Amino acid sequence: MSRNDEVATRLEEFADLLEATGVEYKPTAYRRAAENVREHPAPIEELAAEGEDAVAEIDRVGDAIAAKIVEYVETGEIEELTDLREELPVDMAGLTAVEGVGPKTVGSLYDALGVTDLDELEAAAKAGEIQEVSGFGAVTEQNILDNVPFARESRERTRLGDARPVADDALASLADLDSVRSAEVCGSIRRWKPTIGDVDLLVASEERDPIVEAFTDWDAADATIEAGTGKASVRADGTRVDLRIVDPDEFGAALQYFTGSRAHNVAVRNRAIDRDLKLNEYGLFDVSDVEGEAAAGDGDEADVEAAEPDATRVGDRVAGEDEDGVYRALDLDPIPPELREDRGEVEAAAEGRLPFLVEPGDLRGDLHTHTDWSDGAFSIAEMATAADERGYDYHVVTDHATGPGMVGGVGLDESDIEEQAAAIAEAAEEVDIPIFHGIEANIDADGGLSTDDETLAALDLVVASPHAALGQDREEATERLIRAVEHPHVDVLGHPTGRLINERPGLDPDIEAIAAAASSSGTAIEVNANPARLDADGEFVRAAVEAGAPIAVNTDAHAPRELDNARYGVHTARRGWAETSNVLNARSLNGLRSFVL
Ligand code: DGT
Ligand code: CA
Ligand code: CA
Ligand code: ZN
Description:
By secondary structure, the chain is an alpha/beta fold. About 45% of the residues lie in helices and about 15% in strands. The strands form four sheets. A seven-stranded parallel β-sheet has the order 11-12-13-14-15-16-17. It has a five-stranded mixed β-sheet with strand order 2-4-7-6-5, with helices on both faces. α14 crosses α19, α25 packs across α26 (about 540-545) and α26 (about 540-545) crosses α27. The longest helix has 19 residues, at about 140-155. It is globular and about 75 Å long. Residues about 295-310 have low confidence and may be disordered. Bound molecules: 2'-deoxyguanosine-5'-triphosphate, calcium ion (2 copies) and zinc ion (ZN). The site of 2'-deoxyguanosine-5'-triphosphate has 14 residues, from α12, α14 and α15. Its main location: cytoplasm. It comes from Halorubrum trapanicum.
């Protein structure tokens, strides 16, 4: 976490606590300031060192907030915040994870009932105490009760977008050590799962203790959970990070083993057994001449773990130094980590029909981005320039149209859209890549769009997304999304379920039915690369790929740096077996033109 992120998080916590105590307006000011501190290119500690005036130069940061920022950077705390925490000793993040519960609700329920955490919230709801509190009713109470389990579950797993930067940072600091030969992330992060339980890192080295020591001293490590010989665990940014150190000649086997998934490993290990081979975290061994239990290798984990390490290095080593070699020695093409979920990848690898997965470098442009015409913070030219700087061949602006789910006059109506066309043409003169004029239209609860057909017809590209009525049942959701997909002007179905990972589950439509409709109407299904969304997910992508519907990997960027989230979308598409040829925005400029026309 950069210092800017850290300061922003404190300001947001302050805003939540202020709001919970009934303060008006100020919380909004603190949240806006937090956002700008987070986005600010200069390190906040350097500005703070120059003084309050330098900090107050940041957009939306006034003198009072600047003083608090300097106080925090200098002393490590904000006195007023510390006082508020004492006044309101609640698990704010846990409680507000419940859909429909905001800081104000937290404040009211603490005052009335002394609720401080999820367990107490659930107990109070079950006992019917919440509906007795003024301002609350039976419906609210029932909603809380319904939403607590999802909130609880979501507290246990970290979003990929939060964990991956931590893993990358740890990896970089380990790779810097002299004695480290190779270093890789493994586990669910390497498979790019949308949420992860913990971060797993693997290092190849002849040394042990100095690496463990460097790891527990790593800047971002807040606490050491355990430190042993050849392994250690720390807590960083709220997430557990596990490190294992192995000998270089065993690195490939260990990488294969610790990448998982468990189900994939079982399938691969069974294939080894069929060939009189034994696969474990130390290597792949030929055990055809070995008698007895050590050779059994029946995939029984308890046995493998209970055995002495040396007893597991039995027979002749066939592979283990590099991971591809392990797969090849089993007559398999090397299987990309994103596919390792035991969903047919082992059979495909055996038969030489693994997909040619899309890669981050394949993207030629982003088809879903925002500007300051709606809720983005940057101009059309700034966003398009940022796209150009990332090597893209084209850029598509899709600001929000008005409609359900758009609050506070954020969306563009028909006349705004017409006006924006002229602004796009103007910006296009300043930028070296073509800018297309699109829109993110709202899919209403019935599947209709809230922008008129004539306006949609005049645009280069239409992304249609659901933003409201996300609690619909499966049948309603399916009909709704199919209708949107079949709309003659819709090119891309944006973030199809509307889920926010760890915040709200979103729609749960029949993905096969939507994929089939998208395929026959020639509409792309978006993988929204915002790490809070990753929507469509891998399973949905796979249904689309199998149905022959195109995929669009879009960032939905509201600021230039959010264009860099594209990698999360690409790896999510890979989890859905998407090939480069399946991806609409991997097509050339002409390819895109002929698709949208
Ligand atoms: P997570 O952390 O819950 O998101 O999921 P993973 O897949 O990262 O699981 P984790 O951290 O428990 O272990 C990392 C990998 O190591 C896992 O995918 C497979 C492998 N592994 C760990 N323990 C075992 C085990 O007891 N048996 C087998 N077969 N594999 C294991
Ligand atoms: Ca893990
Ligand atoms: Ca682990
Ligand atoms: Zn949207």
